[in-house]
């Protein structure tokens, strides 16, 4: 499994990390799913804003969100990402969130998902931001 995770991470960048605290856990001592999604959405939105040099974006969709393994107190959640597609007013990023237990070195994929953000104009409506956009390398 670690080889598979390492292969997926090769062309991705570390976006953010979070230490799972006791307050982040549900009744079964697993990380709340909503907390994980919040970390992913916030971290990836900031990553995308930096890459496209535009901040007025909103989350349109998080596709294929499947929780593959739990995270527990003391685990480090590492969220990786990359941009995979540009539309007229939208940008799609791929994210991979993993647990990394610093004591055991065990890494597990938690969520792999595509997230689409839409650029809004001053009027709050989608704007064709990418018509004149050149992605940086």
Describe this structure in words.
By secondary structure, the chain is an alpha+beta fold. The protein is built from two helices and five strands, in the order αβαββββ. The chain has a five-stranded antiparallel sheet. The longest helix is centred in the first third of the chain and has 20 residues, at 33-52.
What is the strand and helix layout of this fold?
Blueprint: H1 2-9, E1 13-19, H2 33-52, E2 57-63, E3 76-86, E4 90-100, E5 107-119
Antiparallel strand pairs: 1-3, 2-5, 3-4, 4-5
H/E series, N to C? HEHEEEE
Residues in helices, as a percent range: 10-25%
- Unreliable segments of 5+ consecutive residues: none
Using only C-alpha atoms, the radius of gyration works out to 16 Å
Mean pLDDT, all residues: 93
Please count the helical segments. 2
Query: Total strand count, please?
Result: 5
Helix/strand structural class: alpha+beta
Biggest sheet layout: 5 strands, antiparallel
Question: Any idea what the shape is?
Answer: elongated
Strand order of the largest sheet: 1-3-4-5-2
The fraction of residues in strands falls at 35-45%
- Cα separation of the termini: 30 Å
């Amino acid at each position: 499994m670690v080889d598979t995770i390492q292969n997926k991470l090769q062309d991705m960048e570390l976006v953010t990390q979070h230490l799972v605290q006791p307050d982040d856990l549900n009744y079964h001592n697993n990380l709340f799913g909503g907390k994980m999604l919040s970390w992913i959405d916030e971290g990836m939105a900031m990553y995308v804003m930096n890459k496209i040099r535009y901040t007025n974006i909103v989350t349109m969709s998080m596709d294929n969100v499947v929780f593959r393994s739990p995270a527990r107190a003391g685990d480090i959640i590492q969220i990786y990402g990359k941009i995979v597609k540009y539309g007229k007013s939208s940008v799609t990023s791929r994210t991979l969130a993993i647990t990394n237990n610093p004591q055991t070195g065990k890494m597990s994929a938690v969520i792999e998902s595509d997230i689409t953000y839409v650029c809004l104009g001053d009027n709050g409506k989608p704007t064709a931001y990418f018509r004149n956009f050149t992605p940086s390398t």
